[in-house]
Design a protein that fits this description.
The complex is a heterodimer.
Chain A: H1 12-22, H2 34-39, H3 44-55, H4 60-70, H5 74-81, E1 95-100, H6 103-106, H7 110-121, H8 134-137, E2 142-147, E3 159-163, E4 169-173, H9 178-185, E5 196-199, H10 217-222, H11 227-246, H12 259-267, E6 275-280, H13 289-296, H14 298-312, E7 316-321, H15 326-341, E8 357-362, H16 372-380, E9 403-407, H17 408-420, H18 422-425, E10 436-443, E11 449-454, H19 459-465, E12 477-480, E13 486-488, H20 499-504, E14 513-517, H21 523-537, H22 543-560, H23 568-585, H24 589-593, H25 596-604
Parallel strand pairs in A: 1-2, 5-11, 6-7, 6-9, 7-8, 10-14
Antiparallel strand pairs in A: 1-3, 3-4, 10-11, 12-13, 12-14
Chain B: E1 7-12, E2 15-20, H1 25-31, E3 55-58, E4 65-66, E5 77-79, H2 83-99, H3 108-114, E6 164-166, H4 176-181, E7 192-194, E8 201-203, H5 220-224, E9 230-232, H6 233-240, E10 249-255, E11 264-270, E12 273-278, H7 292-296
Parallel strand pairs in B: 1-5
Antiparallel strand pairs in B: 1-2, 3-4, 3-5, 6-9, 7-8, 10-11, 11-12
The chains are: A alpha/beta, B alpha+beta.
Amino acid sequence: MDLQHLTEAPSDAERSAIDALLGPAEAGEHGPTPSVARARRTFLLPALLALQNRVGWISRGGLGYVCRRLGVPPAEAWGVATFYALLALGERPAAFAHVCDDIACAARGAEELCGALEQRFGPCASSAHRAEPHAQRTSSSAAWARSPCLGLCDQAPAALVTVAGTTPVEQAFGGATLARVESALEGRRVAAASFALESMGPRRLLARATAKEAVTLDGYRKLGGYRALERAFELGPEGVRKEVGASKLVGRGGAAFPTGRKWDAVARHVGKQRHVVCNADESEPGTFKDRVLLEQDPFAVIESMTIAGFATGATRGWIYLRGEYPLAAERLSNAIASARAAGWLGARIAGRDVAFDIELRRGAGAYICGEETALLASIEGFRGEPRTKPPFPVDVGLFGQPTVINNVETLVAVLDVVRDGASSYASVGTPGSPGTKLFCLSGRVARPGVYEVPFGTPLSALIERAGGVPGGKPITGVLLVVVAGSFVSPKQLDLPLSFEGARAAGTTLGSGVVFVMDDSIELLPLLRRIAAFFRDESCGQCVPCRVGTVRQEELLARLARGAARGGLETEQHLLAELGQAMRDASICGLGQTASSAIESAFVQLDPLGGKRS
Amino acid sequence: MSDAQRTIELEIDGRKTQVPEGATLLQACQALSIDVPTFCWAANLTPVNVCRICVVELEGARTLVPACSRKAEAGMVVKTESERVKLSRKLVLELLGSSVDMSLAPEFRSLATKYDAHPERFGPRAPRAPSGERESAHAGHHHVDDGAHAANVAQPMKVDNDLFVRDYEKCMLCYKCVEACGTDAQNTFAIAIAGRGFDARIATELETPLPDSACVFCGNCVGVCPTGALMFKAESDLRDTGAWDESKQKVTDTICPYCGVGCQLSMRVQDNKIVRVTSPADHSVTAGHLCIKGRFGWSFVEGGKPK
């Protein structure tokens, strides 16, 4: 391969940021050999993020230097860089605010905040022409843009503020006001807002998180940390897999696939390099449970991944963390370093002949990278485009090797299963759905936050526990799951929160979103925000999703202004056909479920409010 | 089929059939002379299964599956023209037809008739975007429209060299040109998909004009383009003036005289001018791919100076 590279030199700042990540450049004018360079492609996204964090955008010189160091064709690097929302391809101020205007924040004053920012800093930066230098638009020292859900719905409205530099400052915080955003843009630390963290039954998943002492290894050990791994060593790899299989534990990321079956499938590939990937790319609007676990209980994820590695024969672990979670990134990288220093990660874990280590990777603003095959592509340094299944990642995963991919909450649940056994795990919950599950309460509830609930608990009891609607107003609907989502009407609030209960009601539990609505939330704008989200987050690979999500949004825009084309029935027929084709013919779950919540709203609720055009 | 190769038995549209292990459902259908439409598939490229026009119904599968890439498995029961299949194909045609200029894609019109596709259901087309607008989109952001028009990829043609033009309002993002420029043929990697979602597009690095990019002008991207988005400049100029006339054209097969490799060429000639050069996709030497000389180096034939 004889690549034609960009020849422009990087600035000193850009060069030092890349060299800090990749080590000093190889001697000689030709740099690394092609094969050495290609093996480094997995560092493409970390390198682009290093440029972004150091100088605030990705320049031609910076991109060219990354390509030369990694042996990546410039056109492909451009394709990757333009895929991620957090990367800027035009020059902009070092201080930048991403302000959430998604469903939960919109219900708590996001529009007012966006208006105030527009007055102070000019219009949303992404609406301006990329090539137009920022200086020509406004003279202010900072800029801002709207953002999809930042996973801080319990503290809405939320913002993510980044200040690029030699020591970049990244802060995601709730309770966002103009003053707090301005303060963060100046590099000052902003205090965290309050949120609820409660268990309605036995405290399991939140046992350590609520103690708030588990962020150091000592604190984690005091709270019983690493007892599950010790138990795993007693059980042996097969014993661990048996226990996980017997627990009927299924994935908590939304797809509810049996964890034990995944682990068994990877364990079968004896003799091959195998991987454990923690999917921490939580990005579904209204979901923030994984963030809370990662921030408050980071060692639990590390311990559980080590157990997964031991049980499946994988020696390499990866955590793919969404780019919008800076506190989780800090806590995880500290936790990985101290676990390694104490011998809980590395070549001989706890002095045994067991090797396992973990690399932390951060996303850069792409919901689709939570889809497991897109996530793998992103780690490998490619665009986050989902791959066709089969083959499944358990057979052909990261770098083409067998890979277990588990959600954060699933991994934390594994600890209880392994430490106490499957039968103890099943002491709460229902026969079909043993154990507990985290739910993310947001919207019009008195105490939004993460609630741990034994499976089978009625939805109404959960909402009551969160204080119900402020002011005692009646609930007009609940959005349960945004992706593959569905609305629950006020008449269905006794829905039992279990997999079989949800199935019987024609919905799923998904990742645990419970977005509560009262009459202050207008349904049609909410649906349009969901449609805009899917349009923005579609990777663009397949026709049904790339164009279908656009047509769906256009259709809702027509309904919103009472301009149904050919009458309402025609539009509803069109929506139904679009939904069916996206469900049937899209490559991945994003397109397959992009119409679910919207179609459900028309069945369960009355988004047109009795209006008929 | 060698004796060592195992065969797989499956059922397609009620007919039992056997295919070699590793064959795709598309190959199995072709062996039965069952017509499955394709846009992004080509015999000489790795299947990317992005257009989704080839979807078929597989018994027991939650969704439809792409025939072009799904491998046949023993006992599969496949339907290629079920109601679900027809609906998805209709919508794929409508979504493409309403967002992309498919006028030069062979079969698009007949498929639209066959599947009763009406792209105009989504409304009148939005006006053509000014130059550079689609390239400036930032991932995760878009202008929210009022739904009166159907958003599309209409934009000015890119003409930055004398050999071929890029008319991206005809681009359906089939990935074929990227594959041909990359590991499937040329290994030049001058183009890739950039942007995200509806703003995804074929791009050089930083949208650089082709002559300044890594492009070596082999024209293999032009050779695989199914919609006429990539076109010989000679052909594009004739079409622009309305002078393109297939009834006046003749295709002559010959062997390229430039080097000793022996590439077969199909030279399309109108009014004694070479207007398009291709090579058969199933040719044992070229697999349909050529180099800059074989593809474009023919102006001397017409008495002009080499460009």
